[in-house]
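Bug #77: duplicate submission created two jobs. Keeping one. Sequence:
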Amino acid sequence: MDQEALEKRKKTIYSLLCDDFYVPMKAKEMAMLLQIPKSQRAELQEVLDALVADGKADVSKKGKYSKAKHHFVTGVFESHPKGFGFLRMEEGEDIYIPESEVHGAMHLDTVQVKIMPSTGGKRKEGSIVKILEHGVTKVVGYYEQSKNFGFVVPDNQKIANDIFIPIERSKGAVSGHKVVCEITDYGRDGRKPEGKIVEILGHVNDPGVDILSIVKAYDLPVEFSEKILNQAERVAKEVSEADMAGRMDIRDWQTVTIDGEDAKDLDDAITLTEKDGIYTLGVHIADVTNYVQEHSALDVEAEKRGTSVYLVDRVIPMLPHTLSNGICSLNQGENRLALSCIMKFDDKGKLLDHVIAETVVRVDRRMSYTSVKKIIQEQDEKERAEYEELIPMFERMEKLAAILRKKRMKRGSIDFDFPETKIILDEKGRPVEIKPYERNVATKIIEDFMLAANETVAEDYFWQEIPFVYRTHENPDEEKIQKLSTFINNFGYSMHIAKDEVHPKELQKLLEQIDGTPEEPLISRLTLRSMKQAKYTVDCTGHFGLAAKYYCHFTSPIRRYPDLQIHRIIKENLRGRMNDTRKAHYEKILPEVALHASKRERLAEEAERETDKLKKVEYMEERIGQVFEGVISGVQEWGFYVELPNTVEGLVHVTSLTDDFYHYEESSYEMIGERTNKHYKLGQKVKVIVADTDKIMRTIDFRVVRDDVEPDEAVKDEASVLSKMTD
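Kept job's structure:
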């Protein structure tokens, strides 16, 4: 039976179970009641089994079916290192699973959960009653050897159990090895999971093994197959006259790329002119689809990867370097194929007209953010002399970007300015410097222009009613916004919430009001936490954070598959090939493309965070005993997290606060001393000492020190500093 028929019949049978006059009966009795012929009774059984699996029906020992006494839901279990976890729901609030109700489920298992009767708590609680599918099949971790067996301590702290390894399945691993183990038995009723070693990555202290462990843990595909590399070589031919035929030739337009100094995949270039107050902005994006044809081995691999992954010491590209750093990169002085969005704006930032076209470009100069900043902001004479012919365009860029930004802010776009981390490694992969990666005038120019192109393309294709992939950002969770509203009232701020919804402009106004105030770090973080994550969808439901009705990702086809996919759609449309058959094709494939791309993006972000965490631990290892000033970035019942100016974050465990007994106050995000009434709250500045680090667990432990200890004080004897800490 197909899915549509199954769902229809489930509704029919479930309404029967819910009828007030229904008495529990066996499948055979139900078939007789509903006059279902013997030939179709197997289908009835399939429907009943599905209702039981969904948690909507119970079946007694005697085989009689009734409406489920408890409410059951199905979802993915996300474990916490402390033993409890959450059932992550696609819609609605996540469900808390206490440690006693986990019942052997592991991290990322698909499970069925029984909703527990409300105990007056603020959140729903549940109990895992059935494991439907195991989410983790391989584990990366530290191997420890005993005489007759071994076990793997998982790197992922969310996997609570060590994995037992019989000696004959250890592949010769010894204590200290980092390994990949495949789970062969998940264990239950007190038994540990069991597995076998499938790969030895090297010793825990070998250079590069730490990052490789994360790559393997997230199952990131590093190498390209020979077939794919050969295909990339074959298609990466220099641009010929035949390639350029029929395209808009704009090689004589003054064109630049602006990227980071170490960027190698240059997928966007800019042109900008101004006449009579009308700006003509060209955003030219590498035409990757010219080389990556639909259904080719390159395309299949790119879709599978979904995105390039930027780790501390390496990039795992979506496409082979032959393409990403070669023929698809808009390199200075080279003829390149592009897909351009050419927009006309007035001096108020209103879009007057636009053209999306297949083009040929030739970049005049490869610029860096640092260089453009020196030219525009610092008025650096040497830099201005070198790029003299480009200065008028850079000045126009600054002017137009400011106009577009002002217009975006006016409609309510929210701009969080939390710094990203830049970690500098030496030749052996050791971190020598960690600093915030600050946005400057040049990064903002590119950001504003890319946003403009993404919005323009999205709106164009929405009104053409052509199947498309949009970048959407849902409205914040109602409950979180209500909590935020209540909380900011304590500081004298308020925001307007209409029909349980908040307009992004209200959040933007709030961020403007708190700018430069002592409570800014606290409220900024809470505002960010109230937001949902952006994702790829086929429905144009708008982007809350940007206050945009129409938005997509058009500008990075080298490193993001959704961009590549919509380039293909745009080109088919421009060439007049978007007929009903092709529309039906895209309507069929795009939902899965969007869902998969969203999942791969999350995975890449997690892997990037983990490698950053690892190198931060390694960096702070050398600074045990030093004192720093930081800001409390998170408060939990087990302690509070402190973020240093260099973006490093560590935990002050509640047990280290020995001057009092501290309670966690969830409503105000603070720890309060029972006797002293001392408060530690989100956003508060504190001095801490680096007390300990754990590279395997990727944790940094801080302890609070008294105010009379100077920040950044390097102390050789740790004990002398620890004695200065509050008692």
